[in-house]
Amino acid sequence: MAQLTQPVRPAGASRSAATAEKPRRFRLRAKGAGKQQDGGPVAYLFLIVAALLSLFPLYWTVVAASHTDTDIVTPPTPLLPGSHLIENLKIVWSQVDMTTALINSTIVAGCVAFSTVLFATLAGFAFAKLEFRGRNALLTIVVATMTIPPQLTVIPLYQIITNVGWVGHIQSVILPSLVAAFGVFFMRQFLAEALPVELVEAARVDGANSLRIIWHVVFPIARPAMAVLGMLVFVQSWNDFFWPFIALNQQNPTVQVALAGLGSGDHTIDHAVVVTGALVATLPLLLVFAVLGKQIVGGITAGAVKS
């Protein structure tokens, strides 16, 4: 009987010959690998719907702020802007000192964001790239502090600011928040991956001291993470209500403390005025993101691309 035999490939055959024997569809798929794919109509439709759903709460806030309280609570709920926005803004400024509140919130959020980014970057660099005794134990303690509820620290913290005479002053809100354990852990994780230890050693060989290494090596590499952390801390500090409500008062409030005194009178709540105050409190955050959002996204993209 005749035997079926298969062709034997020579031992010295190149890998390109083996690749040439693959089906055409596999070669076409490999040829298009790594290229940016165009989104289909379904992807665009999904993104449009997601964007509209995300923007609808902000849109409805604008609509509610431009109507009276009766228009809001009486069905059907209005979906188009009204003509009472200026009137509601005047009521907001007459009931609370919103100008002082905006200035105080800007100072508090700016100082807290700047100090947190600075100290968290320095501590994250130390925990990520410097060798010292007890490093892992100290990092564990820092991370463990994130599990402590902030309500447990209110009484001793209030006693401290009372003893130093800071009740009602914005430094009572700034100083307890100068650095956060989350920021330290965030920067440590970023620098552990993004900063090569060889780069730090090369700088030391060139005679750079620790300050020059931090300024010329660490900060440029950590800039994307610093921008993201700064934005997160700024928003969190701007929206903080619990501790500022205890430490401050309506004579020297932040935005969130001022909002607590809005809309109340004659045992009723004017919802339109409250929503107008919330709109005023939201606009600075939108402005900050509009100014810094492109730099933050661009920094993240640049930091994600390896050379």
Helix/strand layout:
Elements: H1 15-20, H2 24-31, H3 41-65, H4 69-73, H5 85-95, H6 98-129, H7 135-144, H8 154-163, H9 171-174, H10 181-194, H11 197-205, H12 210-239, H13 242-247, H14 255-259, E1 264-265, E2 268-269, H15 271-304
Antiparallel strand pairs: 1-2
Q: Name the structural class.
A: mainly alpha
User: Beta-sheet strand percentage?
Assistant: under 5%
SS element count, helices:
15
Using only CA atoms, what is the Rg?
Answer: 29 Å
Mean pLDDT: 83
Globally, the shape reads globular
Q: Count all strands and give the number.
A: 2
- Main sheet record: 2 strands, antiparallel
Q: Which percent bin holds the helix content?
A: 55-70%
Distance linking N and C termini? 62 Å
Which strand order spans the largest sheet, edge to edge or round the barrel? 1-2
Give the uncertain stretches in residue-range form: 1-8, 12-23, 25-30, 303-307
Sequence of secondary-structure elements: HHHHHHHHHHHHHHEEH
Can you offer a commentary on this structure?
- By secondary structure, this protein is mainly α.
- The chain has 15 helices and 2 strands.
- It has helices at 15-20, 24-31, 41-65, 69-73, 85-95, 98-129, 135-144, 154-163, 171-174, 181-194, 197-205, 210-239, 242-247, 255-259, 271-304; strands at 264-265, 268-269.
- The chain has a two-stranded antiparallel ribbon with strand order 1-2.
- The N and C termini lie far apart (62 Å).
